Amino acid sequence: xxxxxxxxxxxxxxxxxxxxxxxxxxxxxxxxxxxxxxxxxxxxxxxxxxxxxxxxxxxxxxxxxxxxxxxxxxxxxxxxxxxxxxxxxxxxxxxxxxxxxxxxxxxxxxxxxxxxxxxxxxxxxxxxxxxxxxxxxxxxxxxxxxxxxxxxxxxxxxxxxxxxxxxxxxxxxxxxxxxxxxxxxxxxxxxxxxxxxxxxxxxxxxxxxxxxxxxxxxxxxxxxxxxxxxxxxxxxxxxxxxxxxxxxxxxxxxxxxxxxxxxxxxxxxxxxxxxxxxxxxxxxxxxxxxxxxxxxxxxxxxxxxxxxxxxxxxxxxxxxxxxxxxxxxxxxxxxxxxxxxxxxxxxxxxxxxxxxxxxxxxxxxxxxxxxxxxxxxxxxxxxxxxxxxxxxxxxxxxxxxxxxxxxxxxxxxxxxxxxxxxxxxxxxxxx
Amino acid sequence: xxxxxxxxxxxxxxxxxxxxxxxxxxxxxxxxxxxxxxxxxxxxxxxxxxxxxxxxxxxxxxxxxxxxxxxxxxxxxxxxxxxxxxxxxxxxxxxxxxxxxxxxxxxxxxxxxxxxxxxxxxxxxxxxxxxxxxxxxxxxxxxxxxxxxxxxxxxxxxxxxxxxxxxxxxxxxxxxxxxxxxxxxxxxxxxxxxxxxxxxxxxxxxxxxxxxxxxxxxxxxxxxxxxxxxxxxxxxxxxxxxxxxxxxxxxxxxxxxxxxxxxxxxxxxxxxxxxxxxxxxxxxxxxxxxxxxxxxxxxxxxxxxxxxxxxxxxxxxxxxxxxxxxxxxxxxxxxxxxxxxxxxxxxxxxxxxxxxxxxxxxxxxxxxxxxxxxxxxxxxxxxxxxxxxxxxxxxxxxxxxxxxxxxxxxxxxxxxxxxxxxxxxxxxxxx
Amino acid sequence: xxxxxxxxxxxxxxxxxxxxxxxxxxxxxxxxxxxxxxxxxxxxxxxxxxxxxxxxxxxxxxxxxxxxxxxxxxxxxxxxxxxxxxxxxxxxxxxxxxxxxxxxxxxxxxxxxxxxxxxxxxxxxxxxxxxxxxxxxxxxxxxxxxxxxxxxxxxxxxxxxxxxxxxxxxxxxxxxxxxxxxxxxxxxxxxxxxxxxxxxxxxxxxxxxxxxxxxxxxxxxxxxxxxxxxxxxxxxxxxxxxxxxxxxxxxxxxxxxxxxxxxxxxxxxxxxxxxxxxxxxxxxxxxxxxxxxxxxxxxxxxxxxxxxxxxxxxxxxxxxxxxxxxxxxxxxxxxxxxxxxxxxxxxxxxxxxxxxxxxxxxxxxxxxxxxxxxxxxxxxxxxxxxxxxxxxxxxxxxxxxxxxxxxxxxxxxxxxxxxxxxxxxxxxxxx
Lengths: 431, 431, 431
Prior knowledge:
The structure is a homotrimer of 431-residue chains.
Chain A lengths: L1 H16 L9 H13 L5 E6 L3 E2 L2 E2 L3 E10 L5 E4 L14 E6 H5 L2 E2 L21 E2 L2 H5 L5 E11 L2 E9 L6 E7 L6 H20 L6 E7 L3 H17 E6 L10 E3 L7 H11 L6 E2 L9 H4 L8 E5 L21 H20 L2 E4 L26 H9 L1 E5 H7 L8 H9 L3 E3 L3
Parallel strand pairs in A: 7-8, 11-12, 11-13, 13-16, 14-15
Antiparallel strand pairs in A: 1-10, 2-3, 4-5, 4-9, 6-9, 10-12, 14-16, 17-18, 17-19
């Protein structure tokens, strides 16, 4: 089955992208985007926004790149090595090359006493620092003495890089997919996001026709989404009817939903309908639990209808933002499940329309072969769903609303709608 | 007490009408309407709509009549006899008179394995067939051989018959009562419907004055209501403020409510208020559970405010649409209870009005003898209901809304309203 | 701490005012108002409204005063003495001085069989009577014989007295505080009301600036509020944005809330928010439980946004309207608690405004020192409340609504709002 392969293929792409050292800027981002463009989305446009560019209240920072980093202990052993894990270096660390005492070193070390075997993920984009991250176990064993600290990084005027794809549809109204490519070697948050998005794009490209235009972006989180909104505000506000911030879509422990600011957009309705009609349980978060780019997409005055449909949400699993968020945490099944839910959301949007029945009183389905011609005690149940669908196609409800009212997954209505349109019993209400 | 007699009188009328072989057309309907007209509603208008008449998506079928029908077994015994039960023949069976094998016969037999002693009620209005219904017990005992099957029926161009009464009131706004007269010998569904409606009409005729005009129809289900709507659409849409589809009002096992399409009409509010304030429990169905003429009255574009207030709902009792739905299933008490609830609904509609208190601040009830002149710890409770009534008569609420807000059955407010109007403390708000 | 003194000071003022014999008119009211004016509110205006003045459906009654009253039993003992408790005389008793039999006396006696040791509080403002109140214990011991009954009262054309203070603020929109001064020696209902109001006024006077104008009245209940509304209707309707009927604010058993007529005014929102965010439980009554001047303030056509925030509500404690509602029932803590809750309500009104964030997308708090510059796993929670505040300051919500949405007591947001305004990240939306 094709869908199962998507999970496996997604997992393999995660594996390929995992080692790259991404950050909000720099060559790790460019390599990531290039692999996606070369292998999956040839039309992906790569944009470079110069350091120093203003974006609302923010400024694009300097570009950061790093070649190597390590610590050598008093005995001459290389005890911390960037080549082993790019989490060992605080993101955006300035270069350093000197001998420091353990006391001084400690001011630049980050570890997690509660998770003594995890390397934490730490960044400092907007204040110049240097620092190393390590397990608390390792840190406790450091003995007094002089340590050589070495970070071969650069922080220079360069640019912020992001990828963008516009897939045109019949309508200029858009569905917006945003995912981020700024985290180094971590898997659920976040390689799962760009990878699942990549496979959704492949599926979108494969569609014979698309009702909506699709705007897909691969950006660094926060500064990337702010830059993107600042450059596309009017278009986004005019055209986007629903959007998804695609993050944490790799593990298989749960499904999660995080609403838009007031939880009342079409994207919210679709996401909730799909999740509520899946076999699986899901966790419904509040917008107060937010922590990703909806902070900007849904901010006052921007007001985009963007939600997150996730597996296990950032901040809600112990491995989050540590070296334990690795390729073992995610799975082909986890990626596959997220992919399917998001596809179901997109399909529900594509198929959504306001419909009206074309005759007064119930139509006579029997003469069209849609209703049994013999009426006995048992016969009424059979076509009940079709009757219910017709009853609420009154021009005021979209198909999603009808599905909610008649307690059916919307995807079970697509064939029925098609059949009733063929019989000219349903027609679209132009909006 | 007069009301108890209504239950008994209703039951007696059920008994009289029970043997007639009604269907969606034919002489059984005419006889039924004539008995009601002769004995109870002299002004009932009988309408005949020719076969072939178009009504929206439907066509009035040929008229069906039947004189006799039977099956004779290989031993020459008459084993099925229409004269014993008119349920034995599939409604709208075409004439037949031939010898068939048991195998062939079986294709024309209907029985209920789950209810082996019940004769099912089966019809085939829109496809020409013949068939017999029998108990599964009897069917299992049929032995191989040749059977004579005989149905002396006619299916010819004729007409669909319905009864209509318009009782004028002070307002041209209407309350609409619809009941059906198309079922052969069954009692709860449906002789109870036309019988209880008949006694409600008698009561309506007896009223000194009616605020509203009443439109009461006795029609065959489905095709009858569709025909009626097609001939009266504008009037119904302009005038009907509340309507009741009167069906399944004969047994005494429960009360039931089935809402209009969105459950938000005046008829819904009245029905719910009355049922919620009765001593008895009731079952609140969804519009998704519908199965009678609200399918047409509440359909998109027709949108009449029609609900059903029933005893045990069609499809929800084991005897439904079988020979067990007989005169033992219904009772004078069951009919009486339904009659009373429906009368309470109609009274609540007649008495409903928007009221406003005529003075600012609370009126001084004491000087009008409506409030105790001595104030002590216990005295405040006594006139609390009157105070509450006055507090919410602010011109925005109808009396039904006031009753809901102050948690009183609306019928306990009628006398109070009258008293306060006499004291000129309440006045009607013209709408 | 200053606030603790308010409780004690309030209690002491209760003690001073307790012995005065107040009624809806008369010198007890005047003395009460004079003590408040002399000691606390020099600008309090005393108004006198002549007997016979019309106020909507009501008429100002004659003025009642009383010097002495007693009963002498057949043995010559003074068994009931007004000087011991002013509750012994039915309020508004006409003068009497005669010998009566026990039988005749009994028609003029009031006691409570259920509370045999309590003297009930009884009045007869609108029908001329005389009567005595006593404990049921004492009443049961009365022996047959002749009793001397003596009431030295007067019921003459005089006036109804009330106090009023208008404290101007920057806006002519008003916050309205109403309390009543018509009960003789009882403590929770009612000395607590005027006393707590007095200390709230002291606090209001002490404020450096007031956004709103404050209208505070000390009136006799019912007739006083009706008279006041009749003389100030247009101003009240145009200007009052929130009001509090201050009663039963002295004991420490509970907090209570009684809503306005529809429970949907700004006063309701503030009262509920404050009570729901206090540490204490509170009882939420319905408007159907009302029994004080909201009956007039919230009546149809008057429609003032007035609620009651109380300690234990009138009618809901056994001592209510008896001699047991005395100085032991209330406490400095009880008075203090009510004072603090009401102050919190007023502060919430003063601070309430519609705010909007001034930048698109989230502002960069880090560059303003409001956000940690290093991002690790734990850091996001720290400034979450500030982010949430900003997220919902979109020009559509007032601060109270924002507090409800983000689940914070509004008073925890004042400092944050101030800080964000200083950084020009929030601005007021003119309404």
